[in-house]
Design a protein that fits this description.
It is built from ten helices and six strands. With 208 residues, it is mainly alpha-helical. The strands form three sheets. Strands 1-2 form a two-stranded antiparallel sheet. It has a two-stranded antiparallel ribbon with strand order 3-6. A hairpin with a 2-residue loop joins strand 1 and strand 2. Helix 4 runs parallel beside helix 7 and helix 5 packs antiparallel against helix 6. The N and C termini lie far apart (65 Å). About 4% of the residues have low confidence.
């Protein structure tokens, strides 16, 4: 099209985008393309132990990298939806190797924060167990309760006990968890008493 003898360039059409986007298949490797990583030969990490090893290595890298050094205190003191710091969350979910890494990192950050012992203590506690936390969220309390899952002494034998279902974690129908796991592992979840004194064993240790 021309106007006054001058050519007007055509306006390129803006491509339409669909929202929400299609969910990514975690085994497809497509998530790497978002980061600009393209590897056709990359195999998905499917083994549970391999995933835990990779996650722990990533955590160590974050805690030890100078890139995160100036932000490590705020990262370690940040709270999730259940008001848990990363250390508290690792204890709740029995990720004890991660707990050790986080404790070492928090101790290092606290030592480097000040020369005064009281300031160091306050800084450390803000990452380990903030003063505003509920008493039941104490890592000491949680770690003492964590290993009282009834499966630790029943094994795969069905016994009479109260069982709970957790819709958040998919423990429904034939799956269930014991009273201790309902109070600790599934605290804050959509978890409720399913049946009183049936014969069952806790599935939490295997499914969650």
């Amino acid at each position: 099209m021309e106007e006054g003898g001058a050519a007007v360039p055509a306006v390129a059409q803006i491509p339409s985008l669909s929202w929400p986007p299609e969910p990514l298949d975690p085994t497809s490797g497509d998530e790497d393309s978002i980061l600009g990583v393209k590897s056709k030969d990359k195999l998905p990490v499917s083994d549970g132990q391999e995933r835990r090893t990779a996650a722990l290595a990533s955590l160590k890298l974050i805690c030890e990298s100078p890139v995160f050094a100036n932000h490590l205190e705020s990262l370690l003191a940040g709270l999730d939806a259940q008001s848990n710091t990363p250390f508290m969350g690792s204890v709740v979910h029995r990720a004890y190797p991660a707990s050790l890494v986080l404790m070492d990192a928090a101790s290092r950050v606290a030592r480097e924060s000040s020369h005064h012992s009281e300031t160091q203590k306050t800084t450390l506690m803000s990452m380990i167990y903030p003063a505003t936390s509920h008493a039941n969220s104490s890592p000491l309390h949680v770690i003492c309760c964590n290993d009282t899952c009834s499966f630790t002494w029943t094994g795969a034998e069905h016994i009479n006990q109260d069982i709970f279902e957790c819709r958040t974690c998919g423990l429904t129908e034939s799956l269930c968890c014991c009273t201790e796991c309902a109070r600790v592992c599934h605290k804050g979840h959509d978890c409720k008493l399913k049946r009183t004194s049936p014969t069952a064993y806790c599935d939490c240790w295997e499914k969650c």
